[in-house]
Amino acid sequence: MFSKFGEINSAKVMKDESGKSKKFGFVDFKDPGAAKAAINELGPGESNNDGTSGSSQRLYVARAQKKSERKQLLQQHYDSLRRERIKE
């Protein structure tokens, strides 16, 4: 699914101790431009098409973030939602 955007250095689907998919993974492209192209076409955001026929799984494609960066963005989002509810 991602190889159409460029050469892939590595791809990893994360699995639990029993070998079952955790339903997230990472793709590392050789060229940063290929990663940008993948994000532009497939995300950021959710898509119903995960590249497999007949699948109803949702796919979220975005740049990898550090845990602290993701936590900060989520906090800003929740604060924004809270302010909107107060206004209503």
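The above is record 1. Record 2 follows with the same two-line structure.
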Amino acid sequence: MRCRIVLILVPVLACFAVTVLAQDPDDLYLPEVADGTYPGGSMRTAFIILNPTTTPDQLTLELTAQDGSPMVVTIPGLGTGSEFDIVAQPGRTTFLQTDGSGSLEVGAARITRSSDVAQVSAIFTVYDA
């Protein structure tokens, strides 16, 4: 019985180690993003970007739909797309929100940073009709 458990755990742990090592430590992941309308309302996602340092940080926000395709949204001031370049200004908090237009789509976000100073969080907002 012990051999079976060990033989199963070794490949699982090896896969986990490869996945962890393959990720860039400067990348941040937001597992749930939603934007668009549905019968009776709409959803939007707000991204809060905090840079508490004295150094600017260059970020790329990349949105992916559930099926792995690019998730296209509109963020006022940044335009429409699935990838946005943002500069996190030193000592500032930046608030960006999708506009909720189009059909409801859910997915995830990856934030690539030039350094590890900026922090990012996301908040869903649900609007009724």
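The longest strand covers residues 27-38.
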